[in-house]
Design a protein that fits this description.
- With 371 residues, the chain is mainly alpha-helical.
- 54% of the residues lie in helices and 0% in strands.
- The protein contains 16 helices and no strands.
- Helix 1 crosses helix 15 and helix 2 runs antiparallel to helix 3.
- The longest helix has 26 residues.
- The radius of gyration is 23 Å and the shape is globular.
Length: 371
C-alpha cells in the first residue's frame, strides 16, 4: 500500500528532491574553480592532527616486514602445497603493506622520523629492489597543482578514456616487475657505472615508480645524489646475492620468492587502477577537481584496509592534505564527513569498493570503443 505522505508534516510530497538525491559532485564541475568552503574545512577541522608518530610507524613497518619475510621462509621450506599457498598469500600481503611505507617517505618531513628512511631502505626497499629514491622526487610531481593529470605527471594515465584492452594489460604487466627489477639492479646499474649513455637511459626511464611511459626523470641534485648512490649500491649487491643463490641452494627458493613478489606487484597495480577515476584528458585541474578525480574507500568494511593499506584507502583525502600522516587520515575523514555531510563535495570522492571502481573504469573504456 502506498503511504499517505500527508500524515507526515515534515515531508513535502511535492518536493522531487526527496525522490531524486542531489547530483554527485564531479571533477568536471570544479575544473575552473575550487570549492573553497571544503578546502577551509579541511584546514580548520584537522587542527591538532599531522604529527608523524614514531611509536606507530616503526612497529607497523617492522611487524609487516617481519611477518612477510617469515611467511616467505615458510613458503620456501614447506613441502605442503596448501601451506605454501597460504604462506605465500600472507607474505604477499605483509610485504605489500611494508612496501607502501615508501609513499609516506615522500611526504613526511625529513626530520620527523629519525632513522626511519634508512631503516626502511635496509629492511624493505633494498631487499625488495625498490629503494626510496625510486619514489622520492617523483611522487611529489603527481601532487603539483599544475602537473597533476597532465602529460608531465609520472603517475597519471587517462585509463578510463583508453581502449578496453589497456586495463588487463596495465594489471598483468606488473607480473614481470620483480624480474625487471633484478635486471635493472644487476645489469643496467653496473653497466651505467661504465657507460654514461646507459646510466642516463636507466635513470630517465627505469629509476622511477611511474606509470606514464612518456615520463623522463631529471638527474638527481644536491644531497639526493648521495642517497641514490648508496641505495643503488645496495640493490646491486643484493641482486647478485639473489642470482648467486641459484647456484648454492637451487632455483626453487628464488622462484617462489619472485612469484610472491609478483603477487604483491599485481595487488599494488590493482590498487593503482582504482586510486583515481582517470578521466582527465591532460588539462590542469583545481585542487577540488584533483580530489574528485581521486578515490576514498572509507569504512564500513575492512577489505580496503588490505588492498589499500597505510592510509591509501583515503587517497582522495590524501590529495587534499598530502603531508597528513597515514595514522591520522581516518580521524581527519571522520571529522570532515561529519561536518560536511551527505551531498557535499567531500562525499563525491567516496566510493564503495574496488570491484565497483574497476567496473566503472571498464564501462568507460567500453563506451569509448563503441564511440
Amino acid at each position: 500500500m502506498t503511504p499517505d505522505l500527508s500524515l507526515h508534516p515534515t515531508i513535502d510530497p511535492a518536493r522531487s528532491d526527496l525522490r531524486e538525491p542531489a547530483p554527485r559532485a564531479t571533477r568536471a564541475a570544479f575544473m575552473a574553480e575550487d570549492d573553497k568552503a571544503m578546502l577551509r574545512a579541511a584546514r580548520d577541522l584537522t587542527k591538532g592532527l599531522g604529527e608523524a608518530k614514531p611509536g606507530i610507524y616503526w612497529p607497523d613497518m617492522l611487524v609487516s616486514a617481519g611477518v612477510g619475510y617469515a611467511a616467505i621462509a615458510a613458503a620456501i621450506l614447506s613441502q605442503n602445497l596448501a601451506v605454501q599457498i597460504a604462506a605465500g598469500l600472507v607474505a604477499a600481503l605483509a610485504l605489500y603493506r611494508a612496501l607502501m611505507f615508501i609513499h609516506e617517505l615522500t611526504h613526511i618531513h625529513r626530520d620527523a622520523l629519525p632513522g626511519f628512511r634508512t631503516g626502511w631502505n635496509l629492511l624493505v626497499g633494498i631487499p625488495l629492489l625498490t629503494p626510496s629514491f625510486m619514489y622520492e622526487g617523483v611522487h611529489t610531481i603527481h601532487h603539483k597543482r599544475t602537473q597533476y593529470g597532465t602529460p608531465e605527471d609520472p603517475e597519471y594515465l587517462p585509463l578510463a578514456l583508453m581502449k578496453p584492452w589497456s586495463l588487463p594489460l596495465f594489471v598483468l604487466v606488473a607480473i614481470l616487475a620483480p624480474v625487471a627489477l633484478i635486471i635493472r639492479a644487476a645489469v643496467l646499474v653496473p653497466l651505467g657505472a661504465l657507460i654514461p649513455a646507459v646510466r642516463t637511459f636507466t635513470w630517465e626511464r627505469f629509476s622511477a615508480l611511474s606509470i606514464n611511459p612518456d615520463f623522463r626523470r631529471r638527474p638527481p641534485e644536491g644531497d639526493f645524489v648521495d642517497r641514490v648512490r648508496w641505495q643503488e649500491a645496495g640493490v646491486f649487491v643484493w641482486s647478485w646475492c639473489l642470482i648467486a643463490s641459484v647456484f648454492v641452494i637451487g632455483w626453487q627458493p628464488l622462484a617462489i620468492a619472485l612469484a610472491i613478489l609478483s603477487l604483491t606487484a599485481v595487488l599494488n597495480q590493482l590498487r593503482t587502477l582504482v586510486a583515481h577515476l582517470w578521466e582527465n584528458e591532460g588539462e590542469p585541474m583545481t585542487v577540488t577537481a584533483q580530489f574528485l578525480d581521486s578515490v576514498n574507500v572509507p569504512p564500513p568494511g575492512i577489505a580496503a584496509e588490505i588492498w589499500a593499506p597505510v592510509g591509501l584507502r583515503y587517497h582522495a583525502l590524501h590529495h587534499l592534505m598530502p603531508s597528513m600522516p597515514y595514522h591520522d587520515l581516518p580521524e581527519a575523514h571522520r571529522r570532515l564527513a561529519r561536518e560536511l555531510g551527505t551531498g557535499s563535495t567531500y562525499e563525491g570522492a567516496n566510493h564503495p569498493g574496488m570491484l565497483v571502481l574497476v567496473g566503472r573504469i571498464a564501462k568507460s573504456t567500453m563506451g569509448k570503443k563503441a564511440a
